[in-house]
Amino acid sequence: ETERTLAIIKPDGVSGNHTNSVKETILDHGFKIKEESFIQLDEDHVKSFYAEHSSRSFFPSLVEYMTSGPVLIMVLEKGNAVADWRALIGPTDPLKAKVTHPHSVRAICGLNLQNNCVHGSDSHQSASREISFFFKTTPSGQITKPI
Ligand code: CMP
């Protein structure tokens, strides 16, 4: 069944010139990019988007990192999009991914546990929350430009 998920190329991915290769990987694996936008997140965006992590010790650093430069947000669509995009990006920590999932996106373009190049929604519930955080969807399913 066709579904949608949210992908983000994070500031380290954009500044490290990984945008085109990550998008190629996405398309090669059968995803459609339904909508995309380069945006500069501010502190309020990041604190709200990552609210579930607000009590973690890494949160202040995460906010600084995610506001450090533009990100590319994309709505991806295909059958099993949520799980398939998570599988394609690999483990959260790129240093572990290099060992266990060497062909994953994070193994290839991530730097460390924080600067891990890309984001993917971790569940259907997260996907719908995260897509509607950035984009509007019309009743017919059309996605329009972001925040
Ligand atoms: P992501 O899975 O997109 O969402 C939470 C982000 O917090 C994660 O990627 C990393 O960029 C960052 N992060 C930093 N430290 C940690 C940690 N110890 N555990 C999980 N995520 C972390």
UniProtKB/TrEMBL annotation:
GO terms of biological process kind: CTP biosynthetic process; GTP biosynthetic process; UTP biosynthetic process
Residues of the active site: H119 (pros-phosphohistidine intermediate)
Catalytic activity: a 2'-deoxyribonucleoside 5'-diphosphate + ATP = a 2'-deoxyribonucleoside 5'-triphosphate + ADP; a ribonucleoside 5'-diphosphate + ATP = a ribonucleoside 5'-triphosphate + ADP
Domain Nucleoside diphosphate kinase-like: 2-142
Binding site for ATP: K10, F58, R86, T92, R106, N116
Record carries keyword Kinase: yes
Keywords, in A-Z order: ATP-binding, Kinase, Nucleotide-binding, Signal, Transferase
Source superkingdom: Eukaryota
UniProt GO molecular function: ATP binding; nucleoside diphosphate kinase activity
Family to which this protein belongs: Belongs to the NDK family.
Protein's UniProt name: Nucleoside diphosphate kinase-like domain-containing protein
Whole-protein coverage range: 24 to 170 of 173
